[in-house]
Write a structure and sequence with these properties.
With 300 residues, this protein is mainly α. The protein has helices at 29-33, 40-58, 121-137, 151-157, 169-188, 204-223, 233-255, 272-298, and strands at 7-13, 16-21, 27-28, 64-65, 74-76, 81-83, 90-91. The strands form three sheets. A three-stranded antiparallel sheet has the order 3-5-6. A two-stranded antiparallel ribbon has the order 1-2. Strands 4-7 form a two-stranded antiparallel ribbon. Helix 2 (40-58) packs antiparallel against helix 5 (169-188) and helix 7 (233-255) packs antiparallel against helix 8 (272-298). It is an enzyme of class 2 (transferase).
């Protein structure tokens, strides 16, 4: 089955069972998270693949519940995920009130894994929701309140009451695909992402407005003068550099050219208020820095 390491043999010895399975020459999600978090699109693709793998397990008779979904138990080669470590996996037993053995990884295990109820496929959904949160933030939900586009889906996945969660992974796939179909529509509007602002979408009216804006700035730059104050050509040159820096900074931030805002602290995966505040504060800081540098250059 795709997404689960192939088992070559199972042998019984004095210590129990010895399982020989496929070797995967790639990192775990935990290894990658030591270096960086995942983008919204990468996280979506990983979670969607895991949903497909879990759907096959959950459709078995009896259902197979993994019970230990976490970054350390998932290999990722940049395209495909592989779910492994089925050491505490179990079959669902109808009418059983709780698990006979309490097992699971703290932070990822659903509440019912600690003896409240019997685990079922919704327990894997809870762990998958925690994993989704960690892929985006590198933090557990209890330590960080995610405010990104995935918040509604993740909150439903990690509901304390199993009845409040998604009841199967197909529901998650449906909501994820719907969410990212909307996001992809937004991306498609930008036909040429590296083109100058105003020319990225290819729309005529935007290009006309952009041309007028660029020409207006060039006219301001050329006609810029300081009256009633002796000033050297060098100082005029520095003043023009300051104006150019203001224009470029403003253009970068307020058109989000090449997704520059995504690199701002506290911008990614937060609500609109935090995003707007972060953008304006960062823009003002850079304007002030450009003025300070210009002042130093003028006084050289």
């Amino acid at each position: 089955m795709e997404g689960i390491p192939h088992i070559y043999s199972i042998e019984e010895n004095e210590d129990g069972l010895e399982i020989i399975e496929e070797y995967l020459a790639c990192q775990t999600l935990s290894d990658i998270l030591d270096e960086h978090t995942f983008s919204n699109l990468e996280a979506y693709q990983i979670i969607r693949q895991l949903c497909i793998i879990l759907d096959v397990l959950h459709q078995q008779d009896p259902q197979i519940i993994h019970r230990d979904i976490k970054p350390e138990n998932i290999f990722y080669d940049g395209k495909q995920v592989y779910l492994f470590d089925f050491d505490i996996a179990r079959n669902y037993i109808e009418n059983q009130k709780r698990d006979t053995t309490v097992l699971g990884s703290q932070g990822y295990a659903a509440p019912e894994q600690f003896g409240f109820y019997q685990t079922d496929i919704r327990s894997d959904i809870y762990s998958l929701g925690v994993l989704y949160h960690v892929l985006l933030t590198n933090k557990l939900p209890r330590d960080y309140d995610l405010q990104g586009i995935e918040k509604r889906i993740i909150d439903k996945m990690i509901a304390i009451d199993p009845q409040g969660r998604y009841q199967d992974v197909k529901e998650i796939i449906k909501d994820l695909d719907q969410l990212f179909h909307i996001e992809k529509k937004k991306e498609k509007k930008i036909k040429h992402p590296k083109a100058l602002p105003g020319f990225r979408s290819g729309k005529l009216w935007k290009m006309i407005v952009a041309i007028m804006g660029y020409l207006l700035f060039i006219w301001i730059l050329i006609s810029f003068k300081i009256e009633n104050q002796p000033i050297s050509q060098y100082q005029y040159f520095v003043y023009r550099l300051i104006l150019i820096s203001w224009f470029i900074i403003t253009l970068l931030f307020f058109t989000n050219y090449l997704s520059v805002r995504d690199y701002l602290p506290y911008y990614k995966n937060h609500g609109i208020v935090v995003k707007v505040s972060t953008t304006i504060i960062s823009w003002l800081i850079l304007l002030v820095i450009s003025i300070l540098i210009g002042t130093i250059l003028i006084n050289l």
